[in-house]
Design brief:
Shape: globular
Strand order of the largest sheet: 3-4-2-1-5-7-8-6
Low-confidence stretches: 470-474
Structural class: alpha/beta
């Protein structure tokens, strides 16, 4: 017998009552309920309250604590987290005994976190201790509160429905901290038989190196992939609120996008590069090396097989996805660059130092252009450092956009030419375009206001004009 390891994101977790009747239980009975390990994120909005809002940057407990002039801000923010947790669990749980257990759990965790922060502040009033040296651990501590809460509440919900669910807390609460991620997971799963019980596992896992140091809020997918690899899962499954589709339906319309059905990790990497993560690249690497296939499904369509991602090539060349993102171009021109080594390495070192993500790059004899995923504020600092290194260089930045046509095999499809024609036929113009020899993606550089019309035009040319796909994405 084999099992699956399945991850549920925060937005979907906020509808856990629906998932109980579809994904967790549905039409399953007795033994059919088991053979599945679930890794859960915090309920939607909780991690924003604990850290900072992912999109707006509005400060949560962590941000207020790290910049605290007084105690009031972060104390009040932690109370808001507690109130939000109480509210959420009352929307999920109905039995008074379950609500009482959940309230006690939240009270104990919030009080423990509050006391920890108070003690740390007091300790750092002594000159030998620096608060800045402990902030990463505080960020990890706070993150773990959200996942532990959602996993505990979900376990209570499933118990009440007659499922033999087990709460598996990897957050390291009042536990030994000097363990590796592998040791943390292996120890927690050591006495669990997923074929007779349903483990509900926290998406955050505490370990000596700290997941947030490298992955920040992408940690749950790293935990998920490592758990699948260590336990020899038959398949790893990510449940989203939508199907992995040929395009964003908000751009081209829901009636014309196609569910992929099948693709490979190469395409998943290209999607990550375009900011459209099917899975975190490091998590994909873990699954690929462990030979564990990944499936991406719509959590609220449990009978649909979703999209399988493995390491297999395409049977025939085809465009699979058209997507795009806003970028900033960084152009460094110096007439004397030709034939001289060191320019590229110096620019890369500066971009790395400022933690700027490179999406793509092009160069010629005397110009190096990087297309970057960065803010203009950061780019001003980058420009200043490059100007110091190369005083004679002309440095310019520009806000642009990149559209990308992606597929496991694009050979013989004339994607570069047809894409430029589709863009022109839509009354638009491309500033640049590039295609690598591996034939997995073609990139088109555009003005920002042309991005969505260009995506729509190319989706029509490459996807909608072909034979109607058999798997229209809902």
């Amino acid at each position: 017998m084999t099992h699956t390891v399945e991850k549920i994101g925060g937005t979907s977790m906020s509808r856990v009552n629906e998932l109980k009747d579809t994904l967790f239980i549905g039409s399953r009975e007795r033994d059919d309920l088991y053979g599945r390990v679930f890794v859960v994120s915090a309920f939607g909005g909780i991690t924003n309250l604990l850290l900072e809002h992912k999109k707006t940057g509005e400060p949560g407990v962590y941000a207020l604590f790290s910049n605290a002039d007084t105690d009031h801000g972060w104390h009040e923010a932690l109370t808001r987290v507690e109130d939000a947790m109480h509210k959420l669990q009352r929307e999920v749980l109905t039995h008074p005994a379950d609500i009482e257990q959940a309230d006690s759990f939240v009270a104990e965790r919030i009080l423990g976190a509050r006391n920890c922060l108070i003690d740390l502040q007091r300790l750092c009033t002594y000159g030998h201790f620096r608060l800045s040296e402990h902030m990463l651990q505080i960020r990890e501590l706070l993150s773990g509160l959200g996942e532990a809460h959602s996993a505990f509440v979900t376990t209570l919900l499933l118990h009440r429905a007659g499922v033999n669910a087990r709460f598996v807390d990897l957050s390291g609460w009042r536990d030994e901290g000097d363990v590796t991620l592998e040791e943390r997971i292996s120890k927690a799963m050591n006495n669990i038989d997923p074929h007779t019980e349903m483990p509900i596992v926290t998406g955050y896992a505490q370990c000596a190196k700290g997941l947030m140091r490298e992955f920040d809020r992408g940690y749950s997918e790293v935990t998920f992939s490592k758990l699948a690899a260590l336990t020899g899962a038959r398949e790893a499954i990510i449940h989203k609120e939508f199907h992995l589709s040929s395009c964003d339906p908000k751009i081209v319309g829901e009636g014309v996008v196609c569910k992929l059905g099948r693709t490979n990790y190469d395409v998943a990497d290209q999607l990550s590069n375009m900011g459209m993560e099917a899975i975190h690249p490091q998590a994909a690497k873990t699954l690929r090396q462990a030979d564990v296939p990944l499936r991406v499904t719509n959590a609220f369509e449990p009978d649909d097989s979703g999209t399988l991602i493995d390491d297999q090539p395409a049977d025939v060349p085809a465009v699979e996805i058209v997507t795009g993102l806003d970028i900033v171009s960084l152009e460094v021109f110096e007439q004397d660059m030709v034939g001289v080594k060191g320019y590229d390495a110096t620019i890369l070192e500066i971009l790395t130092r400022h933690d700027v993500r490179i999406v793509s790059k092009v160069s010629n004899a005397n110009t190096i252009t990087h297309y970057l995923d960065s803010s203009l504020k950061t780019m001003r600092r980058v420009e200043k450092d490059i100007a110091k290194a190369f005083p004679a260089a002309e440095i310019s930045t520009r806000t642009l956009a990149m559209a990308s046509v992606i597929g496991r095999d694009l050979s013989g499809l004339s994607v570069l030419t047809r894409g430029l024609v589709a863009i022109a036929d839509a009354g638009l113009s491309a500033i640049g375009a590039s295609q690598g020899p591996r034939n997995v993606d073609v990139q088109f550089i555009l003005d920002r206001d042309a991005l969505q019309p260009a995506i729509k035009a190319m989706h029509s040319a490459f996807i909608e004009t072909n034979e109607p796909c058999l798997t229209r994405a809902a």
